[in-house]
Specification:
Largest sheet: none
Radius of gyration: 23 Å
Structural class: mainly alpha
Number of strands: 0
Shape: globular
Strand content: under 5%
C-alpha cells in the first residue's frame, strides 16, 4: 500500500510540475493576446481526470491563469470569483491578481490599497504602473529605481521605464525604451499599446502635456506635427494598433486609440471616418468617440449620437458627456 501511495504522490508531483511549466507558457500566450489557446489549455487542465491529479500549487496557479483570462474577457466578476477560489487553495505571495481585479472595478487608488507592500519584481512593476496611473510619480520613480537595481534588463522593467518617462512628459526617452522592449517581447499586447502611445506622443506638439497621450483624448489637429519623421511615427503607431485590435477585437479602448492615430496621420485620415462610424455603434455612442468626430471634423452622421447623449443628460450625465453635448450644441449654433 505504501508503494502505491508513493507512486501516486510521484505521479501527482510530475503532473503538477508539468502543469506549472505549461501555465508559464500559457501566461506568455495570454500576454500576446492568444486567448483561444489559453482558454483551451485551462479547460483541458480543469477536466476531472486532470484536475484530480494536480496539487494545490498547480490548482491555484491555473485558477489565477483562468482569472487573468476572465479579465482579458472583461468579465471582472468571474475574475474575482476565480481569484478568491485560488487564494482559498494557496494564497498568492503578493495579492497582484486581486489588485488587478480592484483596478478594473474601482481604479488605481483602490488597487494600490489592495496590493500593499511588495518586494518581488512583478509586484514592484505592478505598483509602478498603478502609481503612475494615480499620478504618484515620485512613488513610481522610487519603485522603478528599486527595479533597476534588481535587473535593469528585465523587459517589463524597461517597459515601466518607458511608462514613467511618458507620464513625465518625455516621449522621446519613452520611445527609446520601447524600442528596446520591442526587440525582446514584440508580441505582448501591453508592448504594442505602449509602443504606439510613445510614437503618437512623439508626433505631437510639445505644447501638449501627458494628459493628451496617456489617454486618447481629442484635441485640434493643429497640434499634430506634419514633418516626415512625425508622420512616419504615426504610421508605425497605426501598424502596432492594427495588430493590437486584431489580438483584442472587442476591447474598445484599443479601437479608440486607433481612431486617435487614424485621425492624426495623413496616411490614416481616409480610414478615420469609417472607423469612427463603426466605433460609435460598437461603443453605444461613447462621448469620447463623438468628441473625436467633432474636433477633427470627421464625416460621420452624429444624429443618433446626439439623441443618445441628450437622453443620458436628462437622466444624469458625467462631465465628459456634458462637455461633448456642449460641443454638439456649438456645432448646431445653439
Amino acid at each position: 500500500a505504501s508503494t502505491l501511495i508513493g507512486q501516486r504522490a510521484a505521479r501527482q508531483e510530475r503532473q503538477s510540475s508539468q502543469a506549472l511549466e505549461a501555465a508559464k507558457r500559457a501566461q506568455d500566450d495570454l500576454r500576446a493576446g492568444r486567448t483561444a489557446m489559453v482558454r483551451s489549455f485551462v479547460e483541458n487542465q480543469r477536466r476531472e481526470e486532470n484536475w484530480s491529479q494536480l496539487d494545490e500549487r498547480a490548482r491555484s496557479r491555473l485558477l489565477r491563469l483562468a482569472a487573468s483570462l476572465a479579465l482579458r474577457d472583461q468579465d471582472v466578476d468571474r475574475a474575482s470569483t476565480l481569484s478568491v477560489e485560488a487564494d482559498a487553495i494557496a494564497p498568492q505571495e503578493e495579492p497582484r491578481l486581486a489588485a488587478h481585479v480592484s483596478l478594473e472595478r474601482d481604479g488605481p487608488a483602490a488597487a494600490l490599497s489592495v496590493l500593499g507592500e511588495v518586494e518581488t519584481p512583478a509586484g514592484l512593476q505592478l505598483r509602478v504602473a498603478l502609481r503612475t496611473m494615480s499620478g504618484d510619480m515620485d512613488g513610481a520613480r522610487g519603485d522603478l529605481a528599486a527595479l533597476l537595481a534588481k535587473d535593469p534588463t528585465d523587459p517589463e522593467t524597461v517597459r515601466m521605464e518607458a511608462l514613467v518617462a511618458l507620464a513625465s512628459g518625455d516621449p522621446a526617452v519613452a520611445l527609446g525604451h520601447m524600442r528596446r522592449v520591442e526587440a525582446l517581447i514584440p508580441d505582448w499586447t501591453a508592448v504594442l499599446r505602449l509602443g504606439a502611445m510613445a510614437r503618437y506622443a512623439c508626433a505631437l506638439s510639445p505644447a501638449l502635456g501627458p494628459e493628451f497621450y496617456l489617454s486618447p483624448n481629442a484635441f485640434d489637429v493643429a497640434f499634430v506635427r506634419e514633418d516626415v519623421e512625425s508622420q512616419l511615427l504615426l504610421s508605425e503607431a497605426l501598424t502596432l494598433l492594427d495588430r493590437l485590435v486584431d489580438a483584442q477585437p472587442n476591447l474598445m479602448h484599443n479601437r479608440l486609440w486607433r481612431l486617435a492615430v487614424l485621425s492624426s496621420g495623413r496616411a490614416g485620415r481616409p480610414r478615420a471616418s469609417e472607423e469612427a462610424a463603426d466605433l460609435l455603434v460598437r461603443s453605444d455612442h461613447d462621448p469620447a468617440v463623438v468628441a473625436w468626430c467633432l474636433i477633427r471634423g470627421l464625416d460621420v452622421d452624429l444624429a443618433a449620437s446626439e439623441a443618445a447623449l441628450t437622453a443620458r443628460y436628462e437622466t444624469g450625465a458625467d462631465a465628459t458627456t456634458i462637455r461633448v453635448i456642449a460641443l454638439l450644441l456649438l456645432r448646431n449654433g445653439e
